[in-house]
Amino acid sequence: MTFAASASETPHGWAVERPGPIGTGPLARVRRRPPDPGPGDLLLRVEACGVCRTDLHLAEGDLAPRRPSTVPGHEIVGRVVAVGEAVTSFRIGDRAGGAWLRGTCGKCRYCGAARENLCPRSSYTGWDADGGFADLALVPAAFAYPLPDDRDAASLAPLLCAGIIGYRALRRSALPEGGRLGIYGFGASAHLAAQVALAEGATVHVLTRSVRARELALDLGAASAGGAYDAPPEPLDSAVLFAPVGDLVPVALEALDRSGTLAVAGIHLSDIPSLHYERHLFQERDLRSVTSNTRQDGRDFLALAERIGIQVTVSPYPLGRADQALADLAADRVNGAAVLVPD
């Protein structure tokens, strides 16, 4: 195992101590000894960590904790300060990214069919193991992404989950070439997926309750931006639901043209109301979920983001205000993506 000198410092961070509504203070400041890299691990000094809605679901208890006192955060940009003895793909000083998918068995029928996102033994950063709401974070090298040195760390962080999951959701929506896409909710993931769709020639209609988000959507090139429950100005070929609001499922389905597809992008969704078969599903409309991502999704999206020059709208917060970042996310006060940076 090889360490840089700075890796010996005692790191600070935040952990979910008492899951519950964000107003009850589910996050607590913690101070822990530096984690020891295993043979295949990287130890990263965190330069930035995106704040994802999944982190909010974990803090508020919508996503059941898998271990006590877990440090959230799975959009990690950092510098390698220590490497395990088996690591050959990264060296000390390299910039690397840690994302949501942290491990798979590599042996099941899903892993063998390039569908490792469905591996029953998959594990996740900030849920099964401590994440990036901290000074230091441990990431398996096999699930880390090399990142460019010449980009601002805060603008890279949202790409590692918001971007990757948005990309997979877009592909799951079966958007045809030159198609009409509806996006419901317009936060971190949606504003990146919209840019991919626009770069590929789609017409994008955004439906969201946030006035600031509508303004951002139009600035990025959306053809229209309306309220979350409004009807788009034309029938949709595809739609992606990013807002964790089950009430919007029938709304989005009803907006689809014949043979259209709705992809639900979140890991958590409030209850879906009863669907009317003829109005919502008939004429071969499809309803699909999105579950995590594969590493190939990540590689494909990061290469695409670089090629099209994707713009990341960031609202930075110092690490010491992680609780405020989650509160602002819960209240829809974040424009684009919230990102934690060192104090």
UniProtKB/TrEMBL annotation:
Please give the residue ranges the record annotates as the region Disordered.
Answer: 1-39
Catalytic activity, EC: 1.1.1.1
Could you tell me which InterPro entries the record lists for this protein?
A: ADH-like_N (IPR013154), ADH_Zn_CS (IPR002328), ADH_Zn_typ-2 (IPR014187), GroES-like_sf (IPR011032), NAD(P)-bd_dom_sf (IPR036291)
The UniProt keywords, alphabetically, are: Metal-binding, Oxidoreductase, Zinc
- Gene3D superfamilies found in the cross-reference section: Medium-chain alcohol dehydrogenases, catalytic domain, NAD(P)-binding Rossmann-like Domain
- The answer on whether this UniProt entry bears the keyword Oxidoreductase reads yes
User: Do you know which Pfam families this protein is assigned to?
Assistant: ADH_N (PF08240)
Q: Which cofactor does it need?
A: Zn(2+)
The record's catalysed reaction(s) read: a secondary alcohol + NAD(+) = a ketone + NADH + H(+); a primary alcohol + NAD(+) = an aldehyde + NADH + H(+)
Q: Which CDD domains match?
A: CAD2
Does the record bear Ribonucleoprotein in its keywords? no
Broad enzyme group: oxidoreductase
User: Which residues belong to any copy of the Alcohol dehydrogenase-like N-terminal domain?
Assistant: 38-149
**Similarity field:** Belongs to the zinc-containing alcohol dehydrogenase family.
Q: What is this protein called?
A: alcohol dehydrogenase
Q: Whose protein is this, by species?
A: Streptomyces camponoticapitis
Query: What's the gene?
Result: adh
